[in-house]
Amino acid sequence: MLIDRTHRKWFLGSSGGLVVATVAHVSCSLHSAQGPRGGSVVGLIYGSVGFAFMLFAGLLGLRKKFPIWRVGKAQTWMRGHLWLGFASFPLILLHGGFHFGGPLTRVLMWLFIIVFASGILGAALQHFLPRLQTAQLPMETIYEQIGRVRGQLAEEAARLIDESCAALE
Fold it and tell me: Is residue 124 located within the same domain as residue 164?
C-alpha cells in the first residue's frame, strides 16, 4: 500500500491528536507536583487510548485471517493499522512520562520500540520497493499471466522470423 494523498486524513488526524496530547501532557506535567506519571488520570487516559490503538493495529491480522467477515474495507483497516499503530507509540511514552520503570516494563518497552521501528521500516520498504523493482525489472511477469505473455512472445518471435526471412529473399 502506497502512502499517498489518500492517507492525508489519517496523517492529519493522528498528527493533530498527538499535538493535542503533547500539549495536554506538558500542561498537566507543569501543574503536577509529582511530574508525569502513568497512574495519573491523564496517564491512564494515554495508556488506555494507546492500548486501544495497539489493539486495533493487532486486529488487522485477525481480519486478514477471516476475510469472509467483511468488517469494514481492507484499505481502511490498513490505514488504521499504519497510522493508529504509529500514534500508539508516542501515547504510550506519554503514558509513562518517558520512564521505563521496572525490569518488566523495560523489556516490554524495548520490544515495543523494536516492533515500532520494524513497522516504520516495513512501511518504508512497502512504499519504495515496488517502484524500484518495476524500474529495475521491467519484464517481470505475474505468475497467472505467464501463459498469455508466453503466447505474445511466441507471436512476436514468429513475426520477427517472418520479417527476417522476407528480408533475406
Answer: no
For 128, half-sphere exposure in the C-beta direction (CA atoms, 13 angstrom radius) is 6
Q: Residue 84: which of 28, 24, 17, 36 has the closest Cα? A: 17
Q: How many residues does the chain have?
A: 169
Shared domain check, 148 and 94: no
Contact between 54 and 85 (Cβ < 8 Å):
yes
- Cα separation values, 165 from 88, 153, 161, Å: 68, 18, 6
pTM: 0.69
What is the span of the domain harbouring residue 156? 139-169
pLDDT digits (tens, 9 = 90+) for 32-81: 777 667 778 888 899 999 999 999 988 888 887 877 777 778 788 888 88
In this structure, the answer to whether residues 93 and 26 fall within a common structural domain is yes
Q: Which amino acid is at 33?
A: A
Phi, psi for residue 38 in degrees, rounded to 5: -70, -25
Comparing C-alpha atoms, which of 16, 2, 15 is closest to residue 79?
Answer: 2
Same domain, residue pair 129 and 143: no
Nearest to 49 by CA among 11, 10, 87: 87
